[in-house]
Design a protein that fits this description.
Chain lengths: 240, 276
């Protein structure tokens, strides 16, 4: 078997809330591996800290402990938990993408621009990037009449597809998926599934959280069960 | 990745200063006034790097020292301490060691500044086009039709009607004055742009248009920018990384999404919580 593209060792995250004088544990003792061309699924009850792990890897959350060893395209190994901010920004631009259930987009931008953005940021010409965005949106069967308007008024399913297209367009080496099919109907979900399958075929490594267990069965090569950290629902230790 | 600016241990003290100025001020003392000598420590120990094409946000309430830091870099104020290196076309400038002429040269050619108050950035006694011409003349463009042509293209880029370029800025609305100021700052294609509370006090729709314009400029020209603001929305929209300042000190720095979703410092947590 190939070496993993991402190795998570002893990941831990807690939040220190100064106003309330509380320590909120969110994830503890997480160990997992993600491989190119394979999908690792995170399962576990609500509140187990599954999303926290993804956000920790993307560095939206600052990990409390542990190592997140990512093997970059040039072969170097980077600990995402402690890497310099510029290094993280560079990886986000070129190698790691995150698709959540919520669409964060720049207001007042057409859908086509929103989707093309990651390619433009990587230095592709605007026309080129838009062409690829059109192709991807067509593959996801997003009606063409929506392409030139902002996703602000879209339905949940439409937004979700824009979100996915934006995450996939730059062909990241590692893709983090947080319930990418959460608000989709069966037909659209099938399209997303075949898209994920073709990404696997192209060698993209994926770490995913799925709402529906049958998607885990169909797509996951590896399943990691996450347990909520101990004491997470007790009154938490007071901090000085 | 190319580094454009490296700032280390920048400090600004107003007043005579004494040995306890730095020790007895800051967030831990809830004050930036030295209790021993009464000097104001506007900024202390501010350090950061800025890369090409990057937008760095400096966030904090009024009096936190966020503008002071930027004003030093633009030579509007003199630092008490610290070092800043500006990297430009294989050259390296030790900003606070340059003589006045060298500073003026950088200000006129390689830096752009947009102030909250257009009065500071624009000359209100000459026309909008004249303001841009002034900056071009200072950087040795002297052919009349070149200047006129460049002014028209800059003003159209910032969506100021070129028919109005011969009017005085005082006849313009606040949003339009701000756009003329941005056009003026961009006149020499500076690799480094300072934006000090540029949308504060403007209508929401005008704010949006100006922020869109700033993003467009950053994307088209790979301009590095430092955006000073107290507005979390501006930070969220523009900045890749953010410094949070309080009482003259940097209390937290991080990726902008991390600062907003997982703030570490008590003050930042309160700030983010009040915005949501």
């Amino acid at each position: 078997m190939n070496a993993p593209i991402l190795r998570v060792e002893g990941f831990e995250k807690h939040f220190q809330l100064h106003e309330q004088d509380k320590l909120i544990p969110s994830s503890k003792d997480v160990n997992l591996e993600v491989y190119s061309g394979k999908l690792t699924a995170l399962i576990g009850p609500t509140g187990a800290g599954k999303s926290t792990i993804l956000k920790g890897i993307y560095r939206t959350y600052l990990p409390t402990a542990g190592r997140l060893l990512f093997t970059a395209e040039d072969g170097s190994e980077i600990d995402l938990a402690s890497a310099d901010e510029h290094q993280i920004l560079d990886l986000r631009l070129k190698e790691i993408a995150f698709v959540t259930q919520f669409l964060h987009f720049l207001p007042r931008q057409s859908t086509l621009n929103v989707v093309a953005q990651p390619l433009i940021q990587r230095g592709r010409s605007i026309e080129d990037a838009k062409d690829e965005a059109r192709e991807l949106l067509a593959a996801m069967k997003l009606p063409m009449r929506l392409w030139e308007i902002s996703p602000a008024t879209f339905s949940g399913g439409e937004k979700q597809r824009v979100n996915l297209a934006r995450g996939l367009i730059a062909k990241p080496r590692l893709l983090l998926l947080d319930e990418p099919t959460a608000s989709l109907d069966t037909k659209t979900t099938e399209r997303v599934i075949s898209l994920i399958e073709s990404l696997k075929y192209e060698g993209v490594a994926m770490l995913a959280i799925f709402h529906q267990p049958e998607l885990v069965d169909r797509l996951a090569d590896d399943v990691v069960e996450i347990q909520p950290p101990e004491n997470s629902n007790l009154i938490l230790e007071e901090i000085a | 990745m190319d580094k454009v600016l490296q700032v280390r241990e920048l400090s600004v003290v107003y007043g005579k200063g004494c040995a306890s100025c730095y020790k007895k001020t800051g967030p831990d003392f809830n004050s930036n006034i030295c209790p021993d000598c009464g000097s104001v420590v506007a900024a202390h120990d501010v350090s950061f790097d800025l890369y090409r094409g990057e937008i760095l946000g400096i966030m904090g309430e009024s009096g936190s020292g966020k503008s002071t830091a930027v004003k030093c870099l633009f030579f509007d104020e003199e630092p008490t301490n610290g070092k800043a290196l500006f990297y430009d076309e294989d050259q390296q400038y030790n900003l606070f060691r340059l003589n006045k002429a060298q500073q003026r040269r950088l200000r006129n050619h390689r830096f752009g500044m947009v102030y909250q108050n257009p009065n500071l950035g624009l000359n209100f006694d000459i026309s909008a086009g004249g303001n841009i011409a002034e900056r071009l003349l200072m950087s040795n463009v002297s052919n009349y039709s070149d200047i006129r042509g460049r002014a028209v293209s800059l003003l159209s880029r910032t969506e100021v009607l070129s028919e109005r370029m011969d009017e005085m800025p005082k006849n313009f609305s606040g949003g339009m004055q701000q756009r003329v100021q941005i056009a003026k700052a961009l006149a020499t294609n500076p690799p480094l742009l300072f934006l000090d509370e540029v949308t504060t006090g403007l209508d929401l729709s005008v704010q949006a248009a100006i922020l869109d314009l700033i993003l467009e400029i950053q994307q088209q020209s790979q301009t590095s920018m430092i955006v000073v603001t107290h507005d979390l929305g501006v930070i969220r929209l523009l900045a890749d990384r953010t410094l949070v300042m309080k009482y003259g000190r940097v209390i937290e720095t991080g990726l902008t999404d991390q600062i907003l979703e997982d703030p570490q410092h008590a003050y930042t947590q309160r700030l983010v919580a009040s915005a949501l």
